[in-house]
Amino acid sequence: MDPFSDTGDLYQIKQQFFCGQYDLVVKHGLDSFSAESHYKATEYVVRSHFALESIDDALKIIKEDETEGEDAEKLKFLAKYATYLKSRTGGESSDIDEYIENFANLEIVAVLGSVYLINLGKLNQALELLSGIEASLETIALTVQIRILTGKLELAQKELSYAKKWAQDDIVFNFAEAWANLSVGSLNNLQSAFYFFEEIAQGNTSFKGLVSLLGLNLQLHHFVESKEVLNQLEQLAQTSQTEESLAGDYLANKVSYDAITGEADFEQTVTELREVAPSHQFVVDYDDKLATFDGIVAKYAEQIEA
Question: Does the keyword Cytoplasm apply (predicted)?
Answer without folding.
Answer: yes
